[in-house]
Amino acid sequence: MDDEEEQRRPAGLQHLLRPPSNPADHEGLQISDDMFGGSASSDDASTGSEMSQSDDDDEDSEEMGDADEDGGGSADDGGWTADITHFDPPCFSDGETVGPVRDVTPDMRPIDFFHLLVPEPVLSAIVQQTNRYAHKYQLKNGRDEEWRNVDLAEMKAFMAIFMYTSLVHGVFSEDISALWEADEITYNPVMASILTQRRFQRIMRYFHVVSSSGQQQGDSLRKIRPFLETVQNSFRNEFKTAQTHVIHEPPLEEEPLMWSRHLDRKRRKKKRFNLWVRQCTATGFISQVSCLCVPPCLQCTATGFISQIHIHVKEKSDSLSHHEKGYSVARDLCSDLIGSGRNHIVFCIPANTSLRLFRELESHGVYGCGVVTDARHTDCEGLPASVLAKPPTSLRKYDSIVRTKGRYSAVLWNSPRNPFRLLTNAFSPAAQGKLVVKKNRRPDEERPCLEAVQAFQNHIKYIDKYNEKYSWYIISYKPSKTWQQLFWTVLSLAMNNAYIMYKLSPAHAHSRLSRSDFGAELLRAMAGPYYQEPPTQGEE
User: Fold this and answer.
1) Is the Cβ–Cβ distance between 179 and 191 less than 8 Å?
2) Angle at Cα 431 formed by Cα 425 and Cα 436, nearest 5°?
3) pLDDT tens digits along 117-129
4) Radius of gyration (Cα) for the chain, nearest Å?
5) Could you report the per-residue pLDDT of 331-352, keeping only the tens digit for each?
6) Nearest-angstrom CA–CA distance, 59 and 54
7) What CA–CA distances, in Å, run from 96 to 20, 91, 93, 263, 360?
8) Does residue 295 have a cis peptide bond before it, meaning omega lies within 30 degrees of 0?
9) Angle at 348 between CA 346 and CA 349, to 5 degrees
């Protein structure tokens, strides 16, 4: 990339697209382990714009002949041509400020950040609906002598026990009663003392979020709809996002690491819903240890804030095709970006990528970049056949075939492993980027590639790394009722978003809590007077 092209590129996107100037600094694209506390499960996981390649692969690429000259588009390319014209990427109108919208003081606690996203009136409404349902149930089925109305403090303590399952990954996936069994390895006397097992089970029996009256009976989310909408609004209104977002499905199905002796594995039920999210992301991170910014700046902090949620409950009567479902999901997740005039860029997985979607989003000032696979997983209608076809044998590794139509580019990039196809209208087909290639027995190298390829690799690989860490901090208990699974899943997202808000605020510089410490302090605050600190060593 020459100096003239570098100078005319808007400064707002340079930190999102450019790799480190020194190949030895490629670890700067990785997420700091401090983001979630503790190290990742794999030290050599590929993140950012990194790629790995063996020396044998490199030798094979050198032996390949020169690529054929790329002529004009073929007759079956539907108007797509090989003509490449440079254009500037969309400039973000809101600058680079990312983080909580409200003024945050250094002494704010984890519970304060949590209540920004899940306000106390929402929890009070849950208390009211639980007591109302218990009364209604007993009028119909007879008095429950063991029941007494729950108050707000006890309901928060009840939720704190579920939050505990997010700090002991996979242990209580289906059998939370093991928490109170003294002869089990899962027994925790401090947590067991918050509520007795019988009281916990009574609250769980009557636990309700909203009243069923007045809700549409055909709505599969009617039992949590008001709660979901309130939390969604908090996600949108309490956090200012960056320009770039990723639409994907976060991992929610985790195999338990431990099984209770009372648990029959055959009772395990499949998840009856799909959850998609639109997640704010940015690249160009450096190690948090070396960051001296207060509050931490966008350049040195991983965001990953989930801005929008889309839930689809699986029904036998589903009539939408795979492509229609992917389009409608992406359209819904981008609803609050449409018409904002801020020039957002959305990165999509194959199920959500389509020329139809990108054209509609562009008409409302939102740009897209998505990976294309086969016609079964991606809506390939309108895309050039020369890009969808198998790459010619003469195409060298790291080289590309590009077809353009107006602002749109369809790219076939010959990666070291498998062909990689992209559709984008956010990045110029003439702009070049770089990828850091990790060698087994030689120093890492930089390889040229299209800017769109580099940007997609940066953002998607970052989200993969985020999910790897995030899956250790989700409420692992899976109740049998689908609406309860959804409730605890959304609460998990709120807890994680609360930590990201804390991380991007002056409060982090004051207390510097890891993700696990943040969750533990939030748990103690939720339990309130029901939480008894364990005796210190030497006390009886």
Assistant:
1) yes
2) 110
3) 999 999 999 999 9
4) 26
5) 999 998 987 878 899 999 999 9
6) 9
7) 19, 11, 9, 50, 26
8) yes
9) 165
